[in-house]
Structure formats: structure tokens, C-alpha cells
Design brief:
The complex is a heterodimer of chains A (311) and B (264). Chain A has 311 residues and is mainly α. Helix content of chain A is 78%, strand content 0%. The chains are: A mainly alpha (311), B mainly alpha (264). Chains A and B meet through helix 1, helix 6, helix 7, helix 10 and helix 11 of A and helix 3, helix 4, helix 7 and helix 9 of B.
């Protein structure tokens, strides 16, 4: 047991080093010289002397490994450098954007879960019925619909034609259209996942046993089948939370929702590397943390997974 | 279901023909601007209307489809080759090679996929080639993981052990057992990925991280047309519908292939 734990911890450490190193190495992919970009961003004249000075300021004259270690220290202490564009600290920009993204994620996922869970369950329970067929066609169409096209359709009809919302709404009403876009595209996928999960459970022998014993349909469905679907659903859900927190860059920029996704896109067009690096590394860490958390929750609620982990 | 196979392959064949020989038949140059004909509604002369520079939308959809679909095919093929190669290497050789490749896979997997794609495409700069690199960095993972676990399974099977005992060499085991054993799953994954890759490419281009203007590409064109959503909704409408229909076609085709291979 102890040996397994140590191995696991070593693997997580390797993973963390890998993630941070990859995020750091991203800037080495850039065709431009960061010092030159910073100089031209701030409107200064670029000559060999100022370039050398800025390179020294940014620590670019040191070997790559030393740069990585000092960058890592910065990440861990919350000092991720200064944005080239706005001259504000990356930590400040990220902490400003994250609450907006969390809010959008929370609203869209709640909306999505409220719609897709019952729909998926009904489809599986009444398999091959009229409702199931209709839902299957609709979810199929939605899963091939690009999110930006759906976003623009909503914008055209809800904002421009029906005038229910302003194109650039202020305050809370601005969340409706992005949340609707996200929950519809993701919801279609979830309905199909939930349907197939419930169907798989319904074919298990224990369901036949319960039926033979004369339990009512609702007891079988709610007390047994759904309970068994909970663990895989939590895993899926945590991954969705993770990737949505990483920013739904497209939807956020269409609806001008100031979250991390929009911050990332804006920073990319300004070639603002420190912000992009900070964004990538934190999103990966959050994603990893959420997956880890989901593992623990599944372990707690599902004895089957516990048993598997032990053997 | 045979019906799905027939309908989807006919649809894919139609798309392929339209994209391959379509450009030779369209009436207007997709890049030629003509300010006098700007913002024309769909009519007999331009069945999908014209855009802000008077370019024919229908011609741009055909030209854009070439960029979108061919780039997507390139992404899927490159990722499949890289992923399958590394996956087989890891699954077949095991030990340290497997550990290193598995670690690389886990590290890449730790990033939300679209975050990694926009970061790579963004840092490399706006260019369709960079978008291809960025998406390959995301899509190779599935192939590597699948190939690795399949090869591990096949290697542990008794018939492969028997072949070993009969003195078969690596090459013939690879050719006779491993390759046929993984090819079905790989083809299915590849076909099912095409639709989602087309969407991702359009998404990256929409964010300004793919094709450079004025190249006709569905995502780029739709992002340009955003400013004219009220004045000329047909630009986004027709491009979006084209994208949607093509993606549906590839998804249906992928599922038909999956059924066919799994029920052989």
C-alpha cells in the first residue's frame, strides 16, 4: 500500500513538472523575441542597446533551465510576471477574469444538468418510443452544430430580431445568451451519454432480479439504476467543469463576457506571452485538481470503484 | 442499418465532388471584390448573396470548404500517424519506453484540449499551418492511448505467445497480428474525428487563429461577417449551414463505418 502511494505521488510530481515545463516551453515556440515584442508594444524604439537591456530585465540572457525555475517559483508564489500590453500583473488579470468564468460555468452547467438529466433518463426508460426518436434526432443535429454558429443564431434572433436582449447587455442579463449557447451544445452531448449509461445499467442482471422480486419501476430506476450511474456522471461532469473553466473562448468573445477565455484570446492577438503562459498553466492545474477531486468523490460514493482500487 | 451507410456515403461523395471540381465551375472568382455589388440579397445571379466587398458567397463557400475539409483531413491523418506510431511503440516495447510515452500522454491530457490548441496556435501566430500543428498536438493523444492499450492486449493473447514459441520474428508478429488487430478501431476513430476536427478548425479560424484573411475558410468568413449580422445575415447563415451539413455528413459516415466494421 505504502509503495503504491509513493509511486502515485512520484507520478503526480512528474505530471506537475511536465505541465509547468510544457506551459513554459510554449513561449519558446514563438517566432518573435519577447524582448522585441515588449519594446514594440510599449512604443519604444528598438535598437541593440535597449534590446539587450530589456533582455537582461526579463532574464532572457540566462540559460533556459534557470529561466524555467525562476518562472516556476513565480507561478507558485502568485507572481506570474507583468502583462506586456496592459502593464498590469498577470495574477491581477487572471483573478479579475476567473469569477466571471466561474459564474458562467456554474449557470450553464446547472441549466444543462436540469434539462439533460431528465430527458436522458426518459429516453432510456422509454427506449425507441416517439420521444426517444425525436430527442435522438435533435441531439444529433445539435452535436454537429458549431457553438459559434449557434451563438450567432441566438444573437440574431434574440437580440436583433426579437430585441429581448441588448447585443451588448450590461450586468446580469448578459449571462443569458452565452449560458444558453453553452448549455444547449453541451446538453445535447450529455443527453446521449446519460441515455446510454442508463440503458447499459437497465440491461444488467440485477435489474431483472429486482423486477422478478416485484419492485416498482420507480424504485428500480431511482434507488438502484440512477445510483449506479452517478459515478461515471460525476467524472464526466468534472471534465466539463474543467474545460469550461478553461474558458469557452469562442462564446465568451462573441458575447463579450469578460472571462478567462476572452482574456486569453485578447492576449493572443496582442502577443502577450506572460498572460497566455499564466492562463495555460493555471487552467491545466485547475483541470487536474478537478479530475482528482472527482476521483475521490467517486471513490467515496461507489464501493465498486473502492474495491477495484484495492485489488 | 444499411440505409445510413448509403445516405452518408452518397452525401460524402457529393461533398467531395463539389469541393474537388466545384471551383472550376463556379461563375465568379471567390476573391474578386466588386463594391457595386456589395450586400446583395440571395438572387438568381448570386444564389447565396454577396458580402461586404461584393464577393459571391456561394463561390466563397465552395472555396472555403476546400480549405476547411482538406485541412481537417490533414490534421486527422497526421495525428493518427503520430499517435498510432507512439502507441504501438509504447504497447509493444513496454518498460521504460512505455513509461516515458505514457507520461507524455498524461501531461498532454492534463490540459483542457481547446486551451492547449488556442495557446499553441496563438503563440505560433496566425496561419493555417500553425492551426494544423496546434490541433495535431491535441488529437494525437486519443490514437496513442487506444493503440497502446490494444497492442498490450494483443501481445498478451495466447495466439501471439504461440507465434513467439514457433519462432516468429517481430516484423511478422507486427504484420500478421498487431496491425490487423488495431486497424479496425483506428479507422473508426479516424472517421469519427473528422467532423469534430472540422469544427475545431473553423473555431480556431473564427478566433483569428487559423486561415489568414482574405482566404476563404468557413470560420474566417463567419468571423468577418459578424459585423454585418444585422445587415447581411445570409453570409453567416449560408456558411454556417454549409459547415453544419458537412459535419453531419462526416459524423453519419463515421458511425456507418463503425457499424460496418463492428458487425463484420
Amino acid at each position: 500500500m505504502k509503495k503504491i502511494m509513493i509511486r502515485k505521488i512520484i507520478r503526480i510530481l512528474i505530471l506537475l513538472v511536465g505541465i509547468t515545463f510544457l506551459s513554459f516551453a510554449l513561449s519558446y515556440l514563438s517566432p518573435g523575441d519577447p524582448a522585441q515584442i515588449q519594446l514594440s508594444q510599449s512604443g519604444m524604439r528598438v535598437n541593440a542597446q535597449t534590446l539587450a537591456k530589456v533582455r537582461k530585465e526579463l532574464g532572457l540572457d540566462r540559460p533556459m533551465l534557470v529561466q524555467y525555475l525562476s518562472w516556476l517559483k513565480g507561478i507558485l508564489t502568485g507572481n506570474m510576471g507583468i502583462s506586456y500590453k496592459s502593464r498590469k500583473s498577470v495574477a491581477f488579470l487572471l483573478t479579475n477574469a476567473i469569477p466571471n468564468t466561474i459564474l458562467l460555468t456554474f449557470v450553464s452547467l446547472t441549466l444543462m444538468a436540469l434539462i439533460s438529466t431528465p430527458v436522458g433518463i426518459i429516453c432510456a426508460w422509454k427506449k425507441d418510443g416517439a420521444f426517444d426518436h425525436a430527442v435522438r434526432v435533435i441531439t444529433y443535429l445539435f452535436s454537429s452544430l458549431p457553438s459559434f454558429f449557434l451563438a450567432l443564431i441566438l444573437l440574431y434572433f434574440l437580440a436583433l430580431k426579437l430585441k429581448w436582449f441588448a447585443v451588448l447587455p450590461k450586468g446580469m442579463s448578459g449571462i443569458v445568451m452565452p449560458a444558453l449557447t453553452l448549455s444547449l451544445t453541451l446538453g445535447a452531448w450529455y443527453v446521449r451519454q446519460i441515455r446510454s449509461m442508463v440503458l447499459k445499467e437497465l440491461q444488467q442482471d440485477y435489474v431483472k432480479g429486482l423486477m422478478a422480486k416485484g419492485f416498482s419501476d420507480s424504485t428500480i430506476l431511482f434507488r438502484h439504476v440512477l445510483k449506479n450511474c452517478l459515478a461515471p456522471l460525476i467524472t464526466l461532469f468534472s471534465m466539463s467543469v474543467g474545460s469550461m473553466l478553461g474558458g469557452t473562448a469562442i462564446v465568451e468573445s462573441i458575447f463579450v463576457w469578460n472571462g478567462v477565455g476572452k482574456l486569453a484570446v485578447d492576449s493572443i492577438s496582442a502577443r502577450d506571452y506572460p498572460v497566455i503562459q499564466g492562463y495555460v498553466v493555471w487552467m491545466a492545474l485547475i483541470f487536474l485538481g478537478l479530475n482528482f477531486l472527482a476521483d475521490i468523490i467517486c471513490n467515496v460514493i461507489d464501493p465498486r470503484i473502492r474495491r477495484e482500487a484495492r485489488s | 442499418m444499411k440505409k445510413r451507410m448509403i445516405i452518408s456515403s452518397a452525401w460524402i461523395a457529393f461533398i467531395a465532388v463539389a469541393l474537388l471540381i466545384g471551383p472550376f465551375f463556379i461563375k465568379h472568382d471567390p476573391y474578386k471584390t466588386n463594391m457595386r455589388e456589395a450586400f446583395q440579397k440571395p438572387s438568381a445571379a448570386h444564389i447565396c448573396g454577396t458580402d461586404n466587398l461584393g464577393r459571391c458567397i456561394f463561390c466563397r463557400i465552395i472555396a472555403g470548404g476546400r480549405t476547411s475539409v482538406f485541412t481537417a483531413l490533414a490534421v486527422v491523418l497526421i495525428s493518427a500517424v503520430i499517435g498510432i506510431f507512439l502507441g504501438i511503440l509504447a504497447g509493444y516495447l513496454g518498460c521504460i519506453v512505455d513509461e516515458i510515452i505514457s507520461d507524455i500522454i498524461t501531461i498532454f491530457q492534463a490540459f483542457p484540449s481547446f486551451v492547449l490548441a488556442i495557446a499553441i496556435a496563438g503563440i505560433l501566430g496566425q496561419d493555417i499551418k500553425n492551426a494544423i500543428i496546434a490541433l495535431c498536438a491535441v488529437y494525437w493523444i486519443t490514437y496513442a492511448k487506444l493503440a497502446r492499450s490494444l497492442v498490450q492486449q494483443i501481445r498478451a493473447d495466447n495466439y501471439v505467445k504461440a507465434a513467439w514459441l514457433c519462432g516468429a520474428d517481430h516484423l511478422s508478429i507486427f504484420r500478421k497480428y498487431i496491425l490487423p488487430g488495431i486497424s479496425g478501431t483506428m479507422i473508426i476513430t479516424l472517421m469519427l474525428d473528422i467532423g469534430s476536427v472540422i469544427l475545431s478548425i473553423a473555431g480556431l479560424s473564427f478566433l483569428g487563429l487559423g486561415a489568414v484573411r482574405p482566404t476563404a475558410e468557413w470560420g474566417t468568413v463567419m468571423s468577418e461577417a459578424r459585423d454585418y449580422l444585422q445587415k447581411a445575415p445570409w453570409i453567416i447563415g449560408f456558411n454556417g449551414i454549409a459547415l453544419f451539413l458537412v459535419v453531419i455528413g462526416f459524423n453519419l459516415f463515421g458511425e456507418a463505418i463503425e457499424e460496418k466494421i463492428n458487425h463484420l
